[in-house]
């Protein structure tokens, strides 16, 4: 073991963190704002990957344009779902859990009926298919793309939540829905917008994961557990999710470097359980938020 | 019924009496399959594959190719002059459902044989039912061995047939230093044990062995270790969606197939198409069948299958071919049994007992002649090594000169030898139904 390989592990840790974070962003927004435990989050990710596949395969859209397009498509699906179903269930958390789980099955089987169950292929520009060397450290170009897009989205969300009028309204509704409503904020509309936003973010993540791994109707399931962990450990706030995925991503990479991948996961899950025993509200729980 | 103390006592007593006499409801071998065949009625067989869920990718293809094979056999006059009728169920990638559907097919549908399963876990889930009813399972894919039942016939390669040629070939072509990567379950671990034996014989050196959870798509840490270890080639038993992620990230992390190729037991034509040929090109696969095999039987099989209504997925691969030949192994075994005991008296066990040594000839089997071992009822076949080309097809770089014997206990010589009647231990004792 030398410093170069440890450095490699640390850099990889940042990359793993960015993958977990981008998977968790949409869920953070939806859970943090409306308190909805969205079991269909993994399927939103899957829809993002299939949207990119469709746009590329049928319309020949270049990959980089597929990313924002997937955001829009999945956001619209999220919007329809919120208007058609979720909005009737805001005061019944257990029912939203079951309803969104049902939706996830419907989406998965629906995609399977339309596209079949064989994996699909997403093409990316040649420049993303290799790696970048920085001294002794090496990282794949596509991981840098994922990292860059995650950083951009986090920054954009921070601007949206803390520097715009919409953000002030969202935070007001998060803290106290009735009080916010009495000040003239249309909380139904805020919920609708944040749900669509969260779904759209999952769509972007899916378009990226389709390149990193595979496009399959069941692909969402492998990311959704990680995403939920980040949200729960982070406490449902944006900063919480950023810190939670940063720490666990680094731990995954470093532990895997010293032991192996399976054992690294085992340690992380144990640590998370211990952490939640002593801090069930997560890292940065929103003060005054009623759950 | 009121839940009183007296009632409770009565029921418990009745229940324990029933438990004390289990032979009352267990079938004896002869009556296990409670049906008889009638001339003129179709022969029912069960297709027990997953059409939904995570295993649907390979298993849906198995169902399709099985239907194709049955249609082909029926067109040519059926089995012993009688058509086959497939009963298709969906095991939903859930091991509990496999077991439940196996019972349904055997008890209610009264099929005479089951064709099914892809993972070892699902096979192990249904085998107790199959053995209890003295029924018959055609397991049409590769597996790790170390089983000796009197109710299974396998048409895929065992672990010993898989790595016997591949490991020495890779060591010779690329060098001695190897890194093992696999999915974290029974088949990769057993396959790696086998590969180690062959690696030692070839004088190779094992640099590391890593397992990734099934379905995981993060190969960064493993690839970092591989970068560190600098092996000459990688031996992979990663399966399913993870396998595709592995090949993609391999290239994305800057590894080159011509410098450090991956020698896989599973990365075939479907995987290569799903990942994109540029990620698969240059890597190696050991299998008895490749779509690109150039012989008249295979050319005809590929052409006819792809234009049939079952060829919608656009490719053939080793797993489908092994499933296809299993239908002909069934036909041959059934006809042999019918000739020996009479059509009406054919039972699942009779088919199995007469299947030892049955052959699927060159003009039927796309991979070339295969036959069933008379002792362990696995398949004699010729393993081949293919290298993936830039267009996603495989070029055969080495084919075994002669057929390789299946040996389910090749790495466990102490366990004994699998014979027709059970596992014969070194001390001469025979144990039936070892799983």
TrEMBL record, chain A:
<keyword id="KW-0029">Amino-acid transport</keyword>
<keyword id="KW-0813">Transport</keyword>
<dbReference type="GO" id="GO:0005886">
    <property type="term" value="C:plasma membrane"/>
</dbReference>
<feature type="transmembrane region" description="Helical">
    <location>
        <begin position="254"/>
        <end position="276"/>
    </location>
</feature>
<feature type="transmembrane region" description="Helical">
    <location>
        <begin position="93"/>
        <end position="115"/>
    </location>
</feature>
<feature type="transmembrane region" description="Helical">
    <location>
        <begin position="135"/>
        <end position="161"/>
    </location>
</feature>
<keyword id="KW-0472">Membrane</keyword>
<dbReference type="InterPro" id="IPR052157">
    <property type="entry name" value="BCAA_transport_permease"/>
</dbReference>
<dbReference type="InterPro" id="IPR017779">
    <property type="entry name" value="ABC_UrtB_bac"/>
</dbReference>
<dbReference type="GO" id="GO:0022857">
    <property type="term" value="F:transmembrane transporter activity"/>
</dbReference>
<feature type="transmembrane region" description="Helical">
    <location>
        <begin position="7"/>
        <end position="37"/>
    </location>
</feature>
<feature type="transmembrane region" description="Helical">
    <location>
        <begin position="195"/>
        <end position="217"/>
    </location>
</feature>
<dbReference type="Pfam" id="PF02653">
    <property type="entry name" value="BPD_transp_2"/>
</dbReference>
<keyword id="KW-1133">Transmembrane helix</keyword>
<feature type="transmembrane region" description="Helical">
    <location>
        <begin position="223"/>
        <end position="247"/>
    </location>
</feature>
<keyword id="KW-0812">Transmembrane</keyword>
<protein>
    <submittedName>
        <fullName>Urea transport system permease protein</fullName>
    </submittedName>
</protein>
<comment type="similarity">
    <text>Belongs to the binding-protein-dependent transport system permease family. LivHM subfamily.</text>
</comment>
<keyword id="KW-1003">Cell membrane</keyword>
<dbReference type="GO" id="GO:0006865">
    <property type="term" value="P:amino acid transport"/>
</dbReference>
<feature type="transmembrane region" description="Helical">
    <location>
        <begin position="57"/>
        <end position="81"/>
    </location>
</feature>
<dbReference type="InterPro" id="IPR001851">
    <property type="entry name" value="ABC_transp_permease"/>
</dbReference>
TrEMBL record, chain B:
<dbReference type="InterPro" id="IPR006311">
    <property type="entry name" value="TAT_signal"/>
</dbReference>
<protein>
    <submittedName>
        <fullName>ABC transporter substrate-binding protein</fullName>
    </submittedName>
</protein>
<dbReference type="Pfam" id="PF13433">
    <property type="entry name" value="Peripla_BP_5"/>
</dbReference>
<dbReference type="InterPro" id="IPR019546">
    <property type="entry name" value="TAT_signal_bac_arc"/>
</dbReference>
<dbReference type="GO" id="GO:0033218">
    <property type="term" value="F:amide binding"/>
</dbReference>
<dbReference type="InterPro" id="IPR028082">
    <property type="entry name" value="Peripla_BP_I"/>
</dbReference>
<dbReference type="InterPro" id="IPR039570">
    <property type="entry name" value="AmiC_PBP1"/>
</dbReference>
């Amino acid at each position: 073991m030398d410093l170069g390989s440890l450095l490699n592990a640390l850099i990889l840790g940042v990359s793993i963190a960015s993958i977990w974070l981008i998977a968790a962003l949409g869920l953070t927004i939806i859970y943090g704002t409306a308190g909805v435990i969205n079991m269909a989050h993994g399927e939103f990710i899957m829809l993002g990957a299939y949207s990119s596949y469709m746009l590329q395969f049928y319309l020949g859209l270049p990959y980089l344009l597929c990313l924002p397009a997937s955001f829009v498509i999945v956001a619209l699906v999220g919007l329809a779902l919120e208007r058609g179903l979720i909005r009737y269930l805001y005061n019944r958390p257990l029912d939203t859990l079951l309803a969104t789980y049902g939706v996830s099955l419907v989406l998965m089987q629906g995609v399977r009926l339309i596209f079949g169950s064989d994996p699909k292929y997403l093409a990316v520009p040649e420049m993303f298919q290799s790696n970048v060397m920085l001294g002794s450290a090496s990282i794949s170009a596509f991981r840098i793309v994922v990292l860059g897009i995650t950083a951009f989205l986090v920054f954009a969300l921070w601007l949206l939540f803390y520097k715009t009028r919409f953000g002030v309204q969202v935070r007001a509704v998060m803290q106290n829905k009735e009080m916010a409503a009495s000040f003239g904020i249309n909380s139904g509309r805020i919920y609708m917008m944040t749900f669509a936003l969260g779904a759209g973010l999952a769509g972007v993540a899916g378009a990226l994961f389709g390149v990193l791994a595979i496009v399959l109707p069941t692909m969402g399931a492998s990311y959704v557990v990680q995403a939920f962990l980040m949200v729960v450990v982070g406490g449902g706030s944006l900063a919480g999710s950023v810190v939670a995925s940063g720490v666990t991503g680094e731990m995954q990479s470093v532990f895997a470097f010293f032991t192996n991948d399976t054992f690294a996961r085992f340690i992380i899950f144990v640590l998370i359980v211990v952490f939640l025993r002593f801090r069930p509200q997560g890292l940065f729980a929103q003060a005054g938020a009623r759950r | 019924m009121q839940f009183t103390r007296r009632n409770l006592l009565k029921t418990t007593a009745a229940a324990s009496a029933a438990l004390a006499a289990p032979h009352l409801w267990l079938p004896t071998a002869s009556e296990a399959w409670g049906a008889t065949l009638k001339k003129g009625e179709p022969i029912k067989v069960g297709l027990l594959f997953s059409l939904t869920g995570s295993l649907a990718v390979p298993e849906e293809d198995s169902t399709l190719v099985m239907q194709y094979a049955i249609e082909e056999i029926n067109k040519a006059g059926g089995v012993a002059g009688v058509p086959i009728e497939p009963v298709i169920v969906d095991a939903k990638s859930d091991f509990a459902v496999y077991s439940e559907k196996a019972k349904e097919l055997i008890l209610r549908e009264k099929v005479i044989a089951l064709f099914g399963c892809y993972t070892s876990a699902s096979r192990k889930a249904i085998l107790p039912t199959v053995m209890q009813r003295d029924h018959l399972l055609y397991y049409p894919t590769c597996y790790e061995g170390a089983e000796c039942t009197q109710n299974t016939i396998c048409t895929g390669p065992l672990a010993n047939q898989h790595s016997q040629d591949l490991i020495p070939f890779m060591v010779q072509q690329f060098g001695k230093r190897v890194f093992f990567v696999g999915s974290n379950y029974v088949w990769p671990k057993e396959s790696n044990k086998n590969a180690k034996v062959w690696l030692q014989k070839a004088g190779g050196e094992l640099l590391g062995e890593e397992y990734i959870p099934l379905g995981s798509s993060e190969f960064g840490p493993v690839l970092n270790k591989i970068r560190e270890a600098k092996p000459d080639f990688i031996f992979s038993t990663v399966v399913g969606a993870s396998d595709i992620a592995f090949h993609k990230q391999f290239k994305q992390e800057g590894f080159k197939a011509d410098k450090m190729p991956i020698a896989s037991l599973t990365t075939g034509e479907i995987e290569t198409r799903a990942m994109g040929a540029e990620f698969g090109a240059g890597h190696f696969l050991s299998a008895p069948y490749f779509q690109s095999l150039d012989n008249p039987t295979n050319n005809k099989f590929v052409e006819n299958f792809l234009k049939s209504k079952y060829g919608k997925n656009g490719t053939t691969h080793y797993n489908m071919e092994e499933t296809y030949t299993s239908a002909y192994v069934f036909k041959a075994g059934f006809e042999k049994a019918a000739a020996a005991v009479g059509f009406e008296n054919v039972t699942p066990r009779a088919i199995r007992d007469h299947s030892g040594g049955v052959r699927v000839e060159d003009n039927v089997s796309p991979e070339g002649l295969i036959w069933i071992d008379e002792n362990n009822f696995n398949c004699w076949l010729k393993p081949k090594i293919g290298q993936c080309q830039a267009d996603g097809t495989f070029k055969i770089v080495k084919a075994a000169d002669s057929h390789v014997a299946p040996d389910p206990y090749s790495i466990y010589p102490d366990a004994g030898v699998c014979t027709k009647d059970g596992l014969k231990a070194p001390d001469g004792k025979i144990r039936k139904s070892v799983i």
